[in-house]
Specification:
The protein contains 14 helices and no strands. By secondary structure, the chain is mostly helical. Helix 7 packs antiparallel against helix 8.
Amino acid sequence: MENISVDIDNSLETEQSFSYSRIVKSVLIFSLVGIAVYGVGTVASDYKAIGSALVRFPIDSLSLVLALVIIGWLLRGLRFHFYLQQIGEQIPLAYSISDFLAGFALTGTPGKIGEAMKSVFLKRDYNVSITKVIGILVVERLMDLFGVLLLGSLSLLLFKGWIGLFLVCALLVIAVGLFLCMEGIYRPVLTWLTRFRILNWPARKVLSALLSGKELMTFRIFSIGLILSTLSWAMESFSLYIIMKGFSLSATLLEANFIYSFSTLVGALSMAPGGIGGTEAGMVGLMAFMGITYSEALPAVLLIRICTLWFAILVGLLFSVYLTTAARVKPAQSI
């Protein structure tokens, strides 16, 4: 495995390095797609009423929402730092969290795969194996899904018509988690694929990432990661409740929790960049199930996504600029 890691690290450094221009380009493309999606959805409703509702939203409630979202991010940043410690990397906590937040710049990529850019910063500044960080990224995504599943299950009985679909999503996530632990299944297959020239590099990359992630799936590490994940996503779930109350929408905390958890799960499993489209549709659909009209639901959906997705991308850009221009970086060196 060590030889595979070294080869992949070298390949990523020479062929897959991130440049700031590529980060900005990716964000701009995703932003244009988002504007198009939200624009169509808003025009299909009463855009004047939606704009008016957003402007009238209580500023103190908005401040609380942003504070809760940031707390959730810090908890996941702490989880990232914890995972780094478990693979034997003693990175300063402040750097770990800064690196974690920098990854948000490319959160609008399928499956958030663009967040792998944080592995490049760690390789550059602390010579951490890129492969090991990608393994952490795999486990992070799993823990996010498990945390959201756990939260959603608390409110599942309030949405009996959605239990079947929720359980299907839960089985998919559990299956992926179990697969990560079944080295005896994927190692022979991926090792065999390395015999083919065209598949050699990607097969070795996938195998190394899976093996790195598997090391973080012990009971103790899994439990700590799940607790931090659940608390983190609970902050955003509670934020949706505050937003719905701010727009005078009838919903209990448990109802808002299921709306956010299930919609986030759908968006993640869709593999769409940033979950865009699937997450919003899930929220609108569940609110409609509760008797909230499309025009009433849309302002709340737009605001929670602005606070959790678009604000995250902005913060990610700021931290990626910070790490890019840090003193450790040589003038001609790209990220």
